[in-house]
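User: Can you recover a sequence for this backbone? Please restate the input before giving your answer.

Assistant: Of course. Working from this structure:
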């Protein structure tokens, strides 16, 4: 756990020595992974951890790294966690109750502010009863209906006074004789009009007479809140660090218990097996030897290079490529022995995106968005990876915008910007040829990676078949270039003959299904024409937006519509190129070599380190 390099798996010894498999649990009980005592320990630890987590959350203790510290007494630690959680809960509930009470009393104060002048009216009915009602916003017309209903029910023994509140609601004071008060109560209930009662904790049932007590209570709440906050801060200061260290230790113990469930143990011997990088074996042996001497032996029982089906997978990419693991990890991990496509995604994804959006103005907008995302994200988070990918796509979009001479569509041309490569608005065929050429490179690279993967995993026949398919794609493209005089026409015949010779070889290596796969490969190459189609569509929408300025009759209205249309086009330019660039990778490119189904490399380590790595 200190070294954090061993990915523990269950030793495969049951088939050879089934009688030895009885020592799976903490006390040799095979019925549960941890055994009876192990399962009981896990439940106990999780109960303590639940109290610790809730206490730290209620106290607002930050979750920074803390060194695990074993408690001197686990029962005492359990009592501390439970007691702190209860204290923190009581303080938080007290604070919430005070806040709710203050909001309620301030609401009553608004009512008082309206009806304080009506206090004499209530006192003029010494044998009467007062009802305080607040009607919802927009219910001013309901006051007259309420007055008519009251007069119809109790005659003249009622007085109704209403005033508007700042919230738009209507405050209503109803004064009635005591004899008819029950009828009014029933009428309000039937009309679903709720009476506003006096606050229960003020000791005064009469709402207007409760005003002095309300003001006194409002003045007492801030000191009570401050005292509750101070008590919470003191509790966090006293118990925050110990509970944080206890939390880390509890997580570590749970990780160890889970690892023990993978261990075969008897009375005198245990067997623990796992995977680790080859360079980590010597340090592990040295550390175990220095800690336990000859009591524990660490040996390599096998070394598998590229061919082990059960080996875990760890992606290791340079910092420049690492954010693009976000795209790769959207699929299941690649199997051990296959190729991590992340570096190729890091190169081609921004290129495809930039070709489809390809506008200097939109690229700058995307760069600003990427900077905002980076500022608002934390290191190692998914949002930070999104910001990095967006930044790379923004750079590609700006570069291609300069090559195409585009700044918000045709606006760049009006400002004197000229294309350095070609004008996408008119050079449709060159743009299509560039897109197809990228498809040839991308697909051929995928076939080459398939050859490498199959070869190092020992599948020589499959590697040869993939190699012949890559050769046929290259020869076909060269033959077409010769046919259209891009290359010397005399080369057409040799290239065509090469394709014809390679065709039966491919069938001999992979069977008749190879014909279908080859035709599918050519279809995948043509699928890259979507880069041209989406790029041209984005440009034309930008051109239409610019034309709106002179087509609306008013320059101001035209500019507003143009800006709105550019904003919509930018939104489409973020969504559509992303989706299609992902499709070109997941379907056309990954389909040639990618082998999903890998197991994530999760070595036994300390909780904080494991959480950071995840």
């Amino acid at each position: 756990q200190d070294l954090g390099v061993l990915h523990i798996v269950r030793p495969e010894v049951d088939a050879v020595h089934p009688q030895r498999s009885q020592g799976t649990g903490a006390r040799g009980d095979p019925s549960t992974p941890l055994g009876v005592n192990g399962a009981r320990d896990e439940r106990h630890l999780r109960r303590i951890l639940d109290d610790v987590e809730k206490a730290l959350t209620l106290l607002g203790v930050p979750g920074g790294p803390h060194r695990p510290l074993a408690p001197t007494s686990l029962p005492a630690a359990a009592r501390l966690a439970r007691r702190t959680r209860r204290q923190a809960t009581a303080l938080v509930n007290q604070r919430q109750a005070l806040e709710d009470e203050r909001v309620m009393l301030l609401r009553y104060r608004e009512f008082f502010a309206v009806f304080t002048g009506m206090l004499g009216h209530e006192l003029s009915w010494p044998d009467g009863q007062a009802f305080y009602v607040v009607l919802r916003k927009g219910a001013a017309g309901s006051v007259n209906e309420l007055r008519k209903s009251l007069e119809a029910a109790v005659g003249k023994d009622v007085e109704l006074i209403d005033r508007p509140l700042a919230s738009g609601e209507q405050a209503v004071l109803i004064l009635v004789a005591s004899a008819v008060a029950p009828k009014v109560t029933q009428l309000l209930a039937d009309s679903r009009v709720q009476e506003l009662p006096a606050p229960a904790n003020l000791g005064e049932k009469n709402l207007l007479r409760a005003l002095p007590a309300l003001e006194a209570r409002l003045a007492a709440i801030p000191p009570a809140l401050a005292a509750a906050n101070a008590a919470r801060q003191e509790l966090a200061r006293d118990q925050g660090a110990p509970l944080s260290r206890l939390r880390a230790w509890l997580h570590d113990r749970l990780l160890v218990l889970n690892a023990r469930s993978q261990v075969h143990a008897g009375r005198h011997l245990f067997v623990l097996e796992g995977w680790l990088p080859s360079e980590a074996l010597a340090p592990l042996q040295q550390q175990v030897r220095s800690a336990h001497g000859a009591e524990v032996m660490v040996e390599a029982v096998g070394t598998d290079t590229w061919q082990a089906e059960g080996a875990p997978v760890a992606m290791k990419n340079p910092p420049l490529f690492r954010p693009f693991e976000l795209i790769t990890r959207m699929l299941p991990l690649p199997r051990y022995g296959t190729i991590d496509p992340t570096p190729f995604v890091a190169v081609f994804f921004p290129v495809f995106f930039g070709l489809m959006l390809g506008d200097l103005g939109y690229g700058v907008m995307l760069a600003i968005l990427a900077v905002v995302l980076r500022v608002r994200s934390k290191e190692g988070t998914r949002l930070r990876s999104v910001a990095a990918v967006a930044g790379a796509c923004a750079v590609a979009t700006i570069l291609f915008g300069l090559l195409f001479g585009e700044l918000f569509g045709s606006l760049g041309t009006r400002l004197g910007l000229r294309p350095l490569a070609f004008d996408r608005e008119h050079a449709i065929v060159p743009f299509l040829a560039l897109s197809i050429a990228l498809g040839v490179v991308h697909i051929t690279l995928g076939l080459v990676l398939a050859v490498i993967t199959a070869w190092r995993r020992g599948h020589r026949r499959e590697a040869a078949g993939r190699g012949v398919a890559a050769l046929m794609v290259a020869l076909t493209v060269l033959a077409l270039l010769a046919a259209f005089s891009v290359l010397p026409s005399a080369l057409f015949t040799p290239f065509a003959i090469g394709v014809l010779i390679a065709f039966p070889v491919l069938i001999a290596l992979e069977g008749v299904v190879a014909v279908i796969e080859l035709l599918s490969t050519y279809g995948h190459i043509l699928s890259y024409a979507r880069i041209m189609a989406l790029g041209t569509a984005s440009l034309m929408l930008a051109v239409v937006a610019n034309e709106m300025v002179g087509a609306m009759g008013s320059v101001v209205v035209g500019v507003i519509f143009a800006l709105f249309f550019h904003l919509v086009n930018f939104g489409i330019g973020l969504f559509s190129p992303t989706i299609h660039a992902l499709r070109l990778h997941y379907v056309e490119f990954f389909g040639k070599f990618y082998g999903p189904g890998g197991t994530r490399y999760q070595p036994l380590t300390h909780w904080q380190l494991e959480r950071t790595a995840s």
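That completes the design. Residues 15-34 have pLDDT under 50 and may be disordered.
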